[in-house]
Amino acid sequence: MPKLEEFLRDRSPLDAKQIRRIRELTSDWQLLADLSFADLILWVPLRKDFKTWPSGYVAVAHIRPTTAATVFNQDVIGDEIEWGARPRIDQALSEAEIIRDTQPEKFGEIFIKEETIPVILGDQVIAVISRHRNAELMRQPSRLELNYREVAHNVYRMVAEGTFPYTEHSELFDPAVRVGDGLIRLDINGAIIYASPNAKSAFSRMGWAGELEGNNLGQAARSVSVVKLEAHEEAIEVGLSGKALRRVEIENAGGTVDLLALPLLAGGDRIGAIVLLQNVTELRRRERELVTKDATIREIHHRVKNNLQTVSALLRLQSRRIEDPAASAALNEAVRRIASIALVHETLSSSAEASVAFDDVLDRLVAHALDLSPRMGQLRIARTGELGALDPRIATPLSLVVTELIHNALEHGLAESGNHLTITVGRGESGAEITIFDDGVGLPKGFSLAESSNLGLQIVRTLTENELRGNIDLVRTPAGTEARLTFPI
């Protein structure tokens, strides 16, 4: 679907602020469609500037109600009409007034009643909403429908006065609540003058007995909430007074209800409010389960890290008791490899994320390797680039591979000559690359990674091919040795 700017490029004088206002309106206007049981179409005038008369309109948005059947089976976004083809739209634009009480017109097999509302920002009409309802469904409205329509008229008037959508705290609409989940209508003092059946059911499940209407909503909500802290009680009553856009949550053994209070204005004065309700009991239960699950996973990583450190300490003690230098060196290599795995688990145990910030791990691996090198004071290690967050299934084998490559460079390439080790990392859309270069003695002539008997390099090749599904190349250059590792993400 084309973007709003594409519809209007070189065809409308709307600036960035006005386009943003249209986006804010269409992000919140499901409320309008549901309250009025109507399809809504947003029309933007086509003209060079605000001083010239428009040649027509283009439909930039269309929404259907969830409270009634749609009257349009096909989307009309992108449709254009000429000036004069829809007089009510022209009238709403030119007069900056809501056009109501029109006669129904036949559309296919049904009669549709159209009303138009100007969308105003500052002193400019920047668009027009056309509202389309099935006239047959309007003849014998229920009490719910009458209240919804009265509220809808109030909100449409706010659109025409430029006070809806709310410019302050618009983030409170996310996640969105639906009219059908429950609606309460308040008078100017915060007393309930109407509660939909779903709203009554929500309070009944919370333990409220009796009628809601006639009671103060803030006091009713406070009485059923299990949280009895004085500050929280005050927050509930203030939040549900209807004086400002607020979101409040109440909870007890019967469940959890989310309430969004929306003040209704007329001419800048508050005339009441509506409160939309949503039963979020299951959502909160799942969130608590996720928090518990995340805490459990972090605890598991912490225990794995501790166990690996215990194994590492035992091997280190064993290596000190072995007189054979080769055996002692082998145990020390095992200690180093276990330590690199433990570092990944330590990172996961201290992070709220399910991924590994591998750049931090890499820095610690480099620092640890440098501490173990007998030429520590003479070596210079530089790292450039970033890998970002990686899945633990990639981070664990990758830490082992990088550890082996770094130690191979320090123990062989830079053991006697050379002073610089350069690590370059990079990440693309589908893969990553790590290059480790040292300016030491270089690889021996005829070297082949596939035929090398070096245990560390065998581990590197096996993990790269089997775990990382990548490729590893060790090449001799005129300046030293370069190990290039590539793998998909």
Automatic annotation (TrEMBL):
InterPro entries: H_kinase_PdtaS_GAF_sf, HATPase_C_sf, HATPase_dom, His_kinase_dom, PdtaS_GAF, Sig_transdc_His_kin_sub2_dim/P. Pfam families: GAF_PdtaS, HATPase_c, HisKA_2. It is an enzyme of class 2 (transferase). Its EC number is 2.7.13.3. It comes from the Bacteria. It catalyses: ATP + protein L-histidine = ADP + protein N-phospho-L-histidine. Residues 299-489 form the Histidine kinase domain. SMART domains: HATPase_c. Keywords: ATP-binding, Kinase, Nucleotide-binding, Phosphoprotein, Transferase. GO terms for molecular function: ATP binding; protein histidine kinase activity. PANTHER family: ETHYLENE RESPONSE SENSOR PROTEIN, TWO-COMPONENT SYSTEM SENSOR PROTEIN. This is histidine kinase. It comes from Candidatus Planktophila lacus.
